[in-house]
Specification:
The chain is of the alpha/beta class and 225 residues long. It is built from 8 helices and 12 strands. The protein folds into 2 domains: 121 residues, Response regulator (Rossmann fold); 96 residues, Orthogonal Bundle (Arc Repressor Mutant, subunit A), CATH 1.10.10. A hairpin with a 2-residue loop joins strand 8 and strand 9.
Length: 225
């Protein structure tokens, strides 16, 4: 589970972000000033920071500068009401990984968080992923079900299972699955996802009668517990 540090002095926005992120399966740490954010960073190792700029105690700009001076590789997404191009460019050149203008749609923030965490995961990706009898070898490009190699797996099916195994407790929407497996924006067509999941299940059933992928009606799919 990835941990997100939210540094935002507006209590309502901070709480809204926390609730939305937790629904997506993230753990959250809240800070309501720049100095509190700095204190948290001295004690914790979050996977990503959402950082407001207009903060009491210490500005977001100063905190970002301190984060980068420590050579920490944690991604930082700036949240700011400043929509001038100069402000965006300055923050990106100062070490921010992304910049979101307020007021924002929560879905946009969630998407940008996912993108940054995906980049970080790609940098630190485990070579072998395992869960509940499934084993995926990213180097050999092989998948094993209860110790038996899964034959005839397609590229999209491999990427779907890789996504599931990276976050085995998360329920993925069809949109998230599509964007991970096809590596392009979701266009609203879900049939392809259903067909690929069905094919994966059939190939697994040829090896084991156990269920490995559960359908969460109205949401999407997840690995069986």
């Amino acid at each position: 589970m990835s941990t997100i540090l939210i540094v935002e002095d507006d209590v309502n926005i901070n709480e809204m972000l926390k609730v939305a992120l937790q629904k997506e399966g993230y753990s959250c740490i809240q800070a309501f000033s720049g100095t509190e954010g700095r204190l948290v960073l001295s004690q914790e190792e979050p996977d990503l920071v959402l950082l407001d700029l207009m903060l009491p105690g210490m500005s977001g700009e100063t905190l970002l500068e301190e984060i980068r001076q420590t050579k920490r590789v944690v991604p930082v997404i700036v949240l700011s009401a400043r929509d001038e191009m100069d402000s965006k460019v300055d923050m990106l050149l100062s070490g921010a990984d992304d910049y979101v203008v307020k007021p924002f749609e929560i879905r946009e923030v969630l998407a940008r968080v996912q993108v940054q965490l995906r980049k970080r995961t790609g940098q630190e990706e485990k070579k072998v992923l395992e869960h509940n009898g499934l084993l995926l070898d990213t180097e050999e490009h092989q998948i094993y079900v209860d110790g038996v190699r899964l034959e005839g797996i397609t590229r999209q099916e491999f990427l779907i299972l890789q996504l599931f195994l990276r976050w085995p407790k998360k329920v993925f929407s069809k949109e998230e699955i599509f964007e991970a497996a096809w590596e392009e924006p979701f266009m609203g067509e879900t049939k392809a996802i259903d067909v690929h999941i069905s094919n994966i299940r059939k190939k697994m059933k040829a090896i084991s009668e156990r269920s490995f992928i559960d359908t969460v009606w109205g949401i999407g799919y997840t690995l069986s517990r």
